[in-house]
Amino acid sequence: MTIYIDPPTWPGHGRLWSHLISDVSYEELHTFAERLGVPRRAFERDHYDIPAQRYADVVAAGAVEVSSREVVRLLHGAGLRRPKGRAQAPGSRSS
C-alpha cells in the first residue's frame, strides 16, 4: 500500500492544506485515512484534504511526500483523477 501527500500549500478557510491520495484505489485511501481518524467529509472527489498541522502525522504514518504535480500525475496514471468542473454536455445549461 502506498499513499501519497503533497506539501501543505493550498490555502482555504484560513489555513494551508495538503492532498492525500492513493495510486491504487479509493478503498486503499479510505482505509488509510480512517486509520488516522481523518473524517470522510474531508474526501473530495479523488483525495482527502489534510490540514497543515496534520501533515507530519500523516507522513509518520507512512504517506510518501511528493510534489503537487506528482499527485496529479499519479492520479491520472491510476485512472483515479476526478477533475472539478467537468465540461458540460452540449445543450446543457448551468443555473
TrEMBL record:
A Pfam family recorded for this sequence: DUF4031
Domain DUF4031: 3-76
InterPro entries documented for this protein: DUF4031
Protein name as annotated: DUF4031 domain-containing protein
Lineage: Bacteria, Bacillati, Actinomycetota, Actinomycetes, Kitasatosporales
